[in-house]
Every structure is written in structure tokens, then in C-alpha cells.
């Protein structure tokens, strides 16, 4: 009886802890890290006491790999039929083109058809500094410095004119969006256009690049000192007392305890499960197909001589 | 121009310069104007409006002698007229600029403003100087220019008399 009661309370605690997860966040949250350890212990206890339960079919990392499948949590904008139709359209598009897993901080190369360009296609390499919106409207911003000129391009992920999306380096950064690269020294957003794709071994977690960016002196585009950035090295150097005071004033340290705010800003876990259960099989088969095709494509085409 | 610059200074609420400007129509010495000029370039009194309107500072990106000297001196050209009906310069628009005491025409080849999907947004407002016939003053553009310009400039060439496609010929790279 005692063991059973403890097990029950554990489960309830677990459910509460995992109910809501911010979809776009790449920061390792303290809560989840802290909760991960006791969970393992619970699992061991669980195995010892009761027979093992079947694992859920949908992998837990899907909400990070395919964040655009989760709808906008704003209540006024929810419409279950539209969301369903959009998901079908997204799957249709994914059958045509490979849209790989990537995060803010990954380096991408996007080839899109461009009626204005000479070869009717244009390729742009850059670091993904922001990902936003969901469904068919999901989009991301790439940034690069070419010939000492900073350039940014916004792409929609499900844009039919996009021909190819390659991930040249799959990694995350310390922050959720990297707009501060606009105010950083140019070498931090300079990437070689002819860079080759770096392959990660299968099953390894996505590495987090702990690079700290060096900002150039003021004037800046935004008040970076107010945003609690982790990926900036030298922000203290440019702060005066008035900046520190004003940034302290606008801080909202109580917000992490605001359960309602969190509730409104996220999709509940049950709903997430429902959504991914709907698209999971299709996505999984597509993944397997791509893998098979990749293995086939390793054959190197002989060069045409003379 | 001196009056305009002075007006900027008064907005900047720099006390020492304010006193000089309050004196009114007294003849200003040249060093005072130069100091005011350099100050007005460093001070940002308002949040940056990325639109190209009158008095917007631009960056010359071709290798014309005039443009190079103006940029090296730290006195970038200012837009004094936009040749469209909206008054806000978009990509490929012709503008009239004041550069080193002269009036020159130029074409906008890169903007800081939000752009459409798949079109590049630059970190600076770039300009290529042209003469009245549309032929550029320099011989090379040393930053990438957007591919849309090819279409835009071709269309403008057809409707207007000048041939703007010569700007495309001196571009080193497209994005």
C-alpha cells in the first residue's frame, strides 16, 4: 500500500511537471533538468514494483524537430479544422521536398527559384537567427556577411518556390533568437558560402554551441541589456549605472511563476500528443525514405572527361 | 544645408551648441560648422527610421572618386529628393543626394527596411551614384546587390529615357 501510494503521488507530480513545454525554446530549462534525475529514479522504482508500461509511440523530441506542427496557442486564432487542413498540406509539401531538422543557430543553405536571377535559382547560406509562426506560415531568418555587408533574408518554410533546404551545421546556441548578431562584430555572422555540410552521427543529441558573441559599442538596435542574453560576452563593458538601473526596473522575475501566462503561451501536452499522433506515422515513413535515398546517393558520379 | 544641420543640433539638445545657434543670424565660422556636422552624424536623437526619406543618410558602395572621398571623410551623402510619388525610397528608386556640396543622382541598391520574402535586407542603405543619363560614376560595386534590381531597373529603363541597366553591368555579385 505504501509503495503504491508513493507511486501514485510520483505520477501526479510527473504529469504536472511535464504538462506544458515552451515549443520554441532551446534553452535547457532548469526545471526539466532538475526533474530529469528524479524521473529516472522513479523509473527504476517503477520497474522494480510493476511490470514495464509500453512506451508512447510518438517520440518526445518531435515538438522540437517539428515545432511548426503545433498551432499558435492564442485562443482567438485557434480553429481545429483549419489546423487539421494545414497539417495535411504541410505533409503534402514534405512529401515533395526534404525539410530537415534545424534550430536557431544552425547554418543553412536555401536554394530557391528566383525569376530575377541569371540561372533562375539563387542559393543563400547563413545562420538561422530566428524562427517564428506556425503551420504553413512558419518562417525563419537567415543572416550572413558577404563582402563585409550584412545581409538577412526571410524564408517561409513551406514556400513552394523553395527547391532545397540543406543544413550545413546542425547546432543550437544559448539563446532563443540571435538578433543581437546585428550588433555584434561581423566575424560572428560571417560564414563561407562554399561551406560543406558537417555530418552528425545518428542518435547524438544536437550540440549546443556555447559561443559568446562580442558586441560592438553603442548605438545598438535594441536594448540588449534588458533581455538577459546568455550568448553575449562583453555587454557589461558598455553599460552605465543608468542602464543597469533601468534594466532592473523592467525585469519581471515573477513571470516564471506565472502559471496562467505559461498556460496561455503553450499548447497542452495532451493536445500535442493528439496532433503528433495524427502526423507521426507519415513523418516517420518520410524520414526512413530519406535515409534510404541518402544511402543510395553516396555513389559518386564519374567526372565527364574531355 | 548649414541651417538644416543646425536644426538637427538644436534637437540634439547639446547645450554648448544650443547657445551658438540661439545667437541667430550671426555669421558662423567654418570650424563651427564642421564640428556641428561631425556631431550631427554621431548623434541619434530618434530611433532609427529605416525609410529613405529626405535627409536620410546613405552609403555609397561604388568606387567613384566622389563617393569614396565622401565616405572616407565621414560625411555620407544625404537624400534630398526621392523620385517617386510616395516620398519614401524603395529598392531601385532614383534619389537626389547632397554629396560634398554637390547634387548628384543615385540609385538605391540595398535597404535596411523590412523586405519581401526571399529578398535580402541589408545592414546599411546602399547607393550607387549615376549621372543624368543613368550611367554610373564608378566602375565597380563592392557589395552584393539584390537580383530583383535586374527586373526593376529594366522596367524603369523602358518607361523613362535614361538607361539604368548600366548599373547592373558594374555589379560584382548578386544575392
UniProtKB/TrEMBL annotation, chain A:
GO terms for molecular function: structural constituent of ribosome. SUPFAM superfamilies: Translation proteins SH3-like domain. It is found in: Mitochondrion. GO terms for biological process: translation. Its main location: mitochondrion. Keywords: Mitochondrion, Ribonucleoprotein, Ribosomal protein, Transit peptide. The keyword Chaperone does not apply. One of its GO terms (cellular component) is mitochondrial large ribosomal subunit. Pfam families: Ribosomal_L19. InterPro entries: Ribosomal_bL19, Ribosomal_bL19_sf, Translation_prot_SH3-like_sf. It comes from the Eukaryota. The keyword Cell division does not apply. Belongs to the bacterial ribosomal protein bL19 family. This is Large ribosomal subunit protein bL19m.
Automatic annotation (TrEMBL), chain B:
One of its GO terms (molecular function) is structural constituent of ribosome. InterPro entries: Ribosomal_uL14, Ribosomal_uL14_sf. The keyword Ribosomal protein applies. Its main location: mitochondrion. The gene is LOC117570285. Gene3D superfamilies: Ribosomal protein L14 (2.40.150.20). GO terms for biological process: translation. It comes from the Eukaryota. HAMAP family: Ribosomal_uL14. Signal peptide: none annotated. One of its GO terms (cellular component) is mitochondrial inner membrane. The keyword Ribosomal protein applies. PANTHER family: 39S RIBOSOMAL PROTEIN L14, MITOCHONDRIAL, LARGE RIBOSOMAL SUBUNIT PROTEIN UL14M. Keywords: Mitochondrion, Ribonucleoprotein, Ribosomal protein, Transit peptide. SMART domains: Ribosomal_L14. It is found in: Mitochondrion. Belongs to the universal ribosomal protein uL14 family. This is Large ribosomal subunit protein uL14m.
